[in-house]
Every structure is written in C-alpha cells, then in structure tokens.
Amino acid sequence: MAKTENAAPERVAAFRTGLSAESRAAAFLIAKGYRILAKRFRTPYGEIDLVARRRNLIAFVEVKARASLDEAAYAVTPRQQQRIINAAQAWLMAHPEHAEFDMRFDAMLIAPRSLPRHLLAAFDASP
C-alpha cells in the first residue's frame, strides 16, 4: 500500500508538489552542469532532497516550493538545516569516495510562474 493512500488530501497534494519541485530543481541543476547523485536520500537524522556533483564539489540541496520565492526562502529553518547537515554526514559515510570533495549546502527555491532560484551556500555546517 502506498504511503499516500491513507494520507489527508492536503498531505497528498503537498507530497506531489514536492516531487514536482524536486524534478524541476534537478533539471535546473543538470542544465547548470551538475550530475544528480541522489534524490530524496533518507536517514534516521533527516532527508536530503538532492545530492549533486559538479567537478570536485558535492552540493546538498534543499528544495522548497511555496507560493513565492521569498516564502520558499524563509521555509528553510535552522532546525531543518541541522537535520540536513546530519543527513549529509550520513551520506558521506555511505559514500566515502566523495569525502575529499568540497561540500556545500544549497537551497533551490521553486514558485509558480518563476524560474527556480538556486541559492549557493544557503547555509553552512560550521558551529
């Protein structure tokens, strides 16, 4: 049974919007020369929407879809940032071949009738 079968209609709509936004974000990154290494990477600590590579850089990308790009920007909370950082550490442990790469935490903002906005180094993992 699919997860969405018993979910409230609003949650199903949000889930589908999220998948669509992640697909748009991935296509945008690919067009910018990135290779997508993982989508929706789940760990007990959190989830990373996209893991992308360009040359010797690994970008952990949080995708946010809202009614406006500004609303999307405010949706990446400090608590979420910490969960993404923890999930990124788990991803690196599972993929030690990328341990020497440069790392960056980006955000991809998605809103209707707007091009995606890619925020480079939207937050960092330093304490």
- Overall shape: globular
Number of helices: 3
Radius of gyration (Å):
15 Å
Helix proportion range: 25-40%
Name the beta content range: 25-35%
Give average pLDDT, whole number. Answer: 87
Quaternary structure of the protein: single chain
How would you characterize the overall build of this protein?
- The structure is a single chain.
- With 127 residues, this protein is α+β, with helices and mostly antiparallel strands.
- The chain has one domain (3-123): Trna Endonuclease, Chain: A, domain 1 (3-Layer(aba) Sandwich).
- It is built from three helices and five strands, in the order αβββααββ.
- The chain has helices spanning 9-31, 69-74, 78-94; strands at residues 35-43, 46-54, 57-65, 102-110, 117-123.
- Strands 1-2-3-4-5 form a five-stranded mixed β-sheet.
- A hairpin with a 2-residue loop joins strand 1 and strand 2.
- The N and C termini lie far apart (41 Å).
- The relative contact order is 0.18.
- Mean pLDDT is 87; it is low at 1-5.
